[in-house]
Amino acid sequence: MRSTAMNRAQRGKLALTAAALGASLLTAGCGYITPQQTSHQYSASDGIRTDLGPLQLRNILIVSNGEDEPGRLIGAVYNSSSKDVTLTVNGAKGSQTQVPVKANSYTLLNDKSDAAILSTTGGKPGSMVDVKISENGTNVSNTVKVPVLDATLKEYKDYVPTPSASATATPSSSASASAGATSSASATASATATGR
After folding, report:
1. For this UniProt entry, which residues form the secretion signal (predicted)?
2. Exposed end of the chain (fewer CB within 10 Å): N or C?
3. What whole-number distance in Å separates Cα of residue 135 and Cα of residue 117?
4. What's the confidence (pLDDT) of residue 42?
5. 3-class DSSP state for residue 5?
């Protein structure tokens, strides 16, 4: 009779062990079939990431007021080679900018001193535009889609390129404004003199 009681105890332990093993496999199985976000590389920001030869481009985006307006390229460019490299970015309608990157170093395009401006964006804010990137050390080039953002997000407000002084044409507009002011002043003076 004693051996029967032991067998029941052993069977109980075996059943509990099997239940625990089944529960652990069930919970581990969810992790097995569900993709893990940490195992995939992605840009945890507004810009894109891409590699080109020895260059790694991170958080690259264009800040602009509009499709036919100038756009500023911002982000970071890392150079893993032992030679200085120049990244060339070709945008819409022949616009182009170059970014020099020292050997085994990086260039942050967010700094005021490293403005990389494309003469035209080629896309409205909120869209993705095609830009061709290449580096001078090899014949490697790639076309990537880059997001265009504007000053809606306050962190990009300082990076929106302003039109150049030649584009605003202040001398001619001030000359016509002063001419209009002179003619209205002389018309007022003549009306006062004639008593009208």
Report:
1. 1-28
2. N
3. 17
4. 59
5. helix
Supply the mean pLDDT for the chain: 77
In angstroms, rounded to a whole number, what is the distance separating the alpha carbons of residues 130 and 40?
A: 24
Amino acid 78: pLDDT: 96
Closest-CA residue to 62 (of 74, 78, 44): 74
Q: Global pTM?
A: 0.63
Burial classification of residue 63, based on how many CB atoms lie within 10 Å of its CB (0-12 exposed, 13-18 middle, 19 or more buried): buried
99-108, 121-130, 158-167: which range is least confident on average? 158-167
Architecture of domain 48-163: Sandwich (2.60)
* Domain ranges for the chain: 2-39, 48-163
Question: 109, 133 in Cβ contact below 8 A?
Answer: no
Q: Identify the CA nearest to 69 among candidates 4, 152, 162.
A: 162
Let me know: does 145 contact 60? Beta carbons within 8 Å: no
List, in order, residues 6 or more apart from 153 with CB less than 8 Å away: 46
Distance CA 12, CA 30 (A): 28
CA 9 to each of CA 13, 15, 19, 126, 172: distance values in angstroms, whole numbers, following the listed order: 6, 10, 15, 68, 101
